[in-house]
Specification:
about 210 residues, mainly alpha, globular, about 0% strand, 10 helices
């Protein structure tokens, strides 16, 4: 990486950390329907102690595994799991955004902001060793891109690279943002660093192929 890019990544990382921890995240339930809940990952049913969240909120038949699955996930993944229902809530709003695009801008933007608040709540209440953090950080970066906040998206992608340097997602996300900003040389440098550090070469090659650099 060039000296300029190295300095940029340090600045982005510091800004990302500050953006996430600067203030308590606004965490709010979207009041998902049973139909929406059925589209979520099955483990979302076990992100709180009860597999059902109330008739007016999240409701779903419990998957097989017994009534102690919530505690099993806490034992398996640590205290970060206790905040994961907020990520499931964020996924509901992200799904809604696709339906709302071009139809109701105000409701669309509110769903985006609520999703971001729930994602940040999980990040604020989990450690860097939490197994789901890479997925959550990648979702945050993609959400910010959809919100046209490329600065925060780049910061989040860099945070993902810092926390998971052998994972492909951060490099591809950051390179995509840099290409959109017309910074193709920096994008190439980021991808080259990924070539060096990413361990899953096959997955990285597929993801890398989605970045179009002239």
């Amino acid at each position: 990486m060039t000296k300029i890019l190295r300095a940029l990544t340090i600045d982005l990382l510091l800004a990302a950390v500050l953006a996430i921890v600067a203030a308590p995240a606004r965490a709010e339930s979207p009041g998902a329907t049973q139909q929406e809940w059925a589209l979520l990952p099955q483990w979302c049913a076990w992100t709180q102690q009860a597999p059902q969240f109330g008739a007016s909120s999240l409701s779903r038949s419990a998957p097989s595994g017994g009534p102690d699955m919530y505690q099993e996930y806490v034992r398996r993944y640590g205290d970060g799991w206790t905040a994961m229902h907020h990520y499931c809530w964020a996924l509901v709003d992200i799904m809604r955004m696709g339906k709302l695009a071009g139809r109701n801008r105000a409701v669309h933007d509110h769903a985006a902001e609520r999703a971001l608040g729930n994602i940040d709540y999980v990040l604020q209440n989990s450690t860097t060793s939490f197994s789901f953090r890479p997925e959550i950080l990648a979702s945050r970066a993609r959400l910010l891109i959809r919100m046209n906040d490329y600065g925060q998206a780049a910061q989040t992608a860099q945070m993902l690279i810092s926390e998971g340097p052998t994972l492909p997602d951060g490099y591809v996300l950051l390179a995509d943002i840099l290409v959109k900003a017309g910074r193709t040389n920096d994008a190439k440098a980021v991808l080259a660093k990924g070539d060096e550090l990413v361990t899953d070469k096959e997955r990285y090659a597929k993801m890398r192929g989605t970045i179009k650099i002239k």
